[in-house]
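User:
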Amino acid sequence: MSIQECICPRCGGPVEGEGLCGRCRGSSTTWVTFDPRVTSVHCPTCNSQKNGSTWTDTERGRDEIGPEIVRAAVHFHPDIRSSSISMVIHDRTLNRSYAEVAVTGGLYDQEVHANAVIEIVWQKEQCNRCNRISGSYYEGLVQVRAQNRKLLPHESLLAQQIATEVENGMQAGGDRLSYISEMEETREGLDITIGSQQIGLAISQAVVQRLGGRYSTHPKLIGEKAGKKLFRVTYSVRLPRYIRGDVVRIGRGYGQIMQIEGQYIRYLDLANGQARSAKEDDFSLLIGNVRDAAEALIAYVDGDVLGIIDPGSGITRECAVGPWRTAAPGQHIRVLKDQDIMVLVG
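Assistant: Predicted structure:
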C-alpha cells in the first residue's frame, strides 16, 4: 500500500481517496429497478398504439413493440456506465407475455449483473378515430357538383382521388381525426362525409385548385359541449359550367376550352389559333363539345373562305378559315353548328 492509498472503513481494503471502496459503495446502492408489469394498448380495428392519452398510427407488431416497452421498464442508477439489456419474450396467452430480462453495467469500477421477469399486458381499446367512425360521427359534408350540368364520371373519379390524397397527407401529418368515413356518388354529384372541418376545407380547396370552380361553406349549429358551440359544415363545391373540349361563343368569335385554371379558363381562339384566358362569365353561349363534332366535306376553298357541305342538310355553307389552318377541297374537317353557322373545331 502506497502512502497515497487509504483504507476502506467497511471492508479494510485499499481505496483511492477517502470513503468506501467501489465494491462497498456498489453493494449499498440500488443500481437498477424493474417495473413488474408493462401495458401496451392498441386498437383492434386499425392497430394504432396509445401512448398516454395520444393515439399514433403504426405498422409495428408485437415483435417490435414488446422489446421497446420492456426496455422502458428498466431504470438504471445515474452512476451506471456501459449498461446493456438482453431479453427473451415468451407469449403465455393472447393478452399476456413474459420477458426474461438480463442487465449488466459498470458501477464504481465494478461490473454488476441483475435478472428480472417483466409481465407484458396486451390491451385492446378502440381508438378515438375508430370510435367516431363506428358511432357515425362526422363534422361535415363535401358536396361536389357541376354548375348547370351533371358531374361527369371522370370528374367524380378525380375528385375522389384528390380527397383520398388529402386524407393520406393529413393522416401522415398526425391529424388522425381528419378522415373520410364515406364517399357516395348520387344523382346530383359526389358526397364526401368527413370527420373534421379541417379536412373538409382542405378537400374543397384541392378540388377547386385541380378542377376549377369555387366553393362555399354552410355551417349548421348542432349543439353545445362544455359551453362550446358545435357546428356541422357543408362544403359546397361547384365545378365550372364548362369542361375541356367545350366550344363556346366569346364576343363575336368562338373558343375551344383547353384547361381550367382556378377562376380562369384557358381556351383556344378558333379564329387565329392563339391560346387565351378568360373568366367563366366572359363566355356567352355553349355551342357543344368537340367529342360531338361531325365530319364535314370541304367543297371548295376561296382565299380565307371555305365552302363546307352541311352534314345535316347537305347544303353548302361558307365559313371563314384562319391562316393557322390548312384546308383543301375534298378533305374532311370537324365542325359544330351554331344555328346556321359552321364552327370549325380543333
